[in-house]
Write a structure and sequence with these properties.
single chain, alpha+beta, 4 strands, about 45% helix
Length: about 160
């Protein structure tokens, strides 16, 4: 169930980011059983890491703190609607629910426009703005064939 205190914490982290010069205005928290188990704020420019978005940072922190790679039973609060990369990370982490504050339109108006990524995702590879080519498909597929028969694999 939505708790405004957790959203306020995500927003506090977002404000802290740019006030301290450590990144863009994004914050996120992961909550389990009414307690914050992971916090994240945008650290892209500090770490020179384009994947260091607040949601990804919060997921990494929560997984580290909980000793798991799945966030089943958790909720994620984000100060802004997650970008396509963050949505992917969130879905891989499998929390029960996502709550967000500002819409992607508000973020776009502030200079954080993800529209081009959504458009690129729907295109055939040959039409993408970053050339994308497949090579050695059969050789690469052998790894997945081996994985399917590997007795020590951990499903996720």
């Amino acid at each position: 169930m939505y708790n405004p205190d957790f959203m306020k914490e995500a927003i506090r982290l977002a404000n802290e980011c740019f006030e301290t010069g450590s990144g863009g205005p994004f914050g996120a928290v992961v909550v389990k059983d009414g307690e914050i188990v992971g916090r994240g704020r945008n650290m892209v420019t500090v770490h020179n890491d384009p994947t260091a978005h607040a949601e990804v940072q919060a997921i990494r922190d929560a997984c580290r703190n909980l000793g798991t790679f799945q966030l089943t039973g958790c909720e994620l609060y984000a100060s802004s609607e997650p970008c396509p990369m963050c949505f992917g990370a969130i879905y891989w982490a499998r929390p029960d629910r996502i709550y967000y504050g500002a819409s992607c339109e508000v973020a776009a108006d502030a200079g954080f426009d993800d529209t081009f990524i959504y458009e690129e995702i729907g295109k055939p590879h040959a039409e993408c703005s970053i050339p994308t080519e497949q090579h050695d498909a059969e050789l690469a597929a052998m790894t997945f064939k081996r994985w399917k028969g590997f007795e020590g694999r951990v499903e996720y």
